[in-house]
Write a structure and sequence with these properties.
With 368 residues, the chain is α/β, with parallel strands linked by helices. The chain has eleven helices and 13 strands. The protein has two domains: 3-116 and 350-367, Enolase-like, N-terminal domain (Enolase-like, domain 1, 2-Layer Sandwich), CATH 3.30.390; 121-341, Alpha-Beta Barrel (TIM Barrel), CATH 3.20.20.120. The strands form three sheets. A seven-stranded parallel β-sheet has the order 5-6-7-8-9-10-11. A four-stranded antiparallel β-sheet has the order 3-2-1-13. Strand 10, helix 9 (269-282) and strand 11 form a beta-alpha-beta unit. Helix 5 crosses helix 6 and helix 8 packs parallel to helix 9. It binds 2-succinylbenzoate and magnesium ion. Residues 55, 135, 188, 190, 238, 289-292, 315, 317 line the site of 2-succinylbenzoate (OSB).
Length: 368
């Protein structure tokens, strides 16, 4: 598609309630939206970096810089054929996967709108609705945590993920397991442990968890291999898998038994697709992670989560779990069976509330 203009907006949206992980608490969510115009059509994408470099080294600020000064000048005025052509063109930029992925998403949206195909169709999705769960942040007390879980279970979520950190791990997971002996339960440490300290997680083996997500450093696939040998619960990698190559390293090293695919973290939907295919060949289950996305990123996550290898519930909750006001006209809601329906309109299948974007945006850069 001949790209005529790209506009990027850093935005800030208030969260319904604060969200706390091992790297900090947030009350609102920043990200960068990408509006790509080509051949009379408009495509949208979302770069899932946050204000602070807690989950990733990328931030709203680095995304604006990398896109404005390096990535977008390689694209505007060019005829970009598809996602692999896009990856080839931006291949000279090292890293910055969250930035790149938002632009790739906008390109997929445009291609789908041109061809009258949904993203699900283009990626090879097979499900009309996908199993989802909710990621519950750290709370002030264990009883607050159980209350928060009560609320989500009452809303119909049948898979719960708990954020953990040193000192707020075993007793938290035990309390929720006691309250819900049958529920599908998993924990996410966001790299808060070291191989030396991780032995304290061993009691989690008694709680019948689906998985333990990213206990150790993000750049340490090898230590995850050593940790997986010490624990029966499957280790799942999130932060450590930044590309299809890293997925291969993790599989070959037996560093994990499950992989969380976030298209943003791995540099785009095309890269997520490669990891999905690789894990299917290797017999590893995958699931779709989340980054508190707006309706744009949520639509994209639902589409990729509809592929056959996504056999575990995704961190894709209903819109009202995150935002009172979103930037898409469509809101995603939870079905009675703890699924969310995959959009099937052309491209991402969502329409954009540009008035809301104008209100949440704290900047705008246009390249044409
Ligand atoms: O580690 O999975 C994570 C949110 C922001 C950054 C990292 C993570 C998360 C979540 C929330 O766990 C998932 C969601 O509901 O979007
Ligand atoms: Mg995670």
């Amino acid at each position: 598609m001949k790209i005529s203009k790209i506009t990027i907006y850093p935005i800030n949206m208030p969260l319904v309630s604060h969200f706390e992980t091992s790297f900090g608490r947030i009350y609102d969510r920043e990200c960068v939206l990408v509006k790509m115009e080509a051949e009379g059509l408009v495509g949208w994408g979302e770069c899932a970096a946050d204000r602070d470099p807690g989950y990733s080294y990328e931030t709203t600020g680095t995304v604006m810089h990398i896109l404005k000064d390096f990535a977008l000048p390689l694209l505007v005025g060019q005829d970009v054929i598809d996602a692999s052509d896009f990856q080839r063109r931006i291949g000279t930029i090292r890293g910055h996967h969250l930035a790149k992925a938002g632009v790739e998403m906008a390109l997929w949206d445009l291609l789908g709108k041109r061809d009258g195909k949904s993203l699900k169709q283009m990626l090879g999705g097979v499900k009309d609705a996908v199993d989802v769960g909710v990621s519950v942040g750290l709370q002030d007390t264990t009883s607050d945590l159980v209350k928060a879980v009560d609320g989500y279970v009452a809303q119909g979520y049948r898979r719960i993920k708990l954020k953990i950190k040193p000192g707020r791990d075993i007793s938290e997971a035990q309390a929720v397991r006691k309250a819900y002996p049958q529920i599908r339960l998993q924990v996410d440490a966001n790299s808060a442990y070291t191989l030396e300290s991780a032995h304290i997680l061993r009691p989690l083996d008694d709680l019948d968890l689906l998985l333990i997500e990213q206990p150790l450093f993000e750049d340490d696939i090898w230590d995850h291999r050593l940790f997986q040998k010490q624990i029966k619960t499957p280790v799942c990698l999130d932060e450590s898998v930044i590309s299809p190559r890293h997925a291969r390293y993790a599989i070959e090293m037996e560093a994990c038994r499950i992989i969380n695919i976030k298209p943003g973290r791995v540099g785009g939907l095309s890269q997520g697709l490669e990891i999905h295919d690789m894990c299917q060949r290797a017999g590893l289950p995958v699931w779709c992670g989340g980054m508190l996305e707006t309706g744009i990123g949520r639509a994209s996550n639902l589409a990729i989560a509809s592929l056959p290898g996504f056999s575990l519930p995704g961190d894709i909750s209903a819109s009202d779990r995150y935002y009172t006001r979103d930037i898409t006209h469509e809101r995603f809601s939870l079905n009675a069976d703890s699924t969310i329906t995959v959009p099937n309109g052309p491209g991402l299948g969502v329409t954009i509330d540009e008035t809301a974007i104008k209100e949440f945006a704290f900047g705008e850069v246009v390249l044409e």
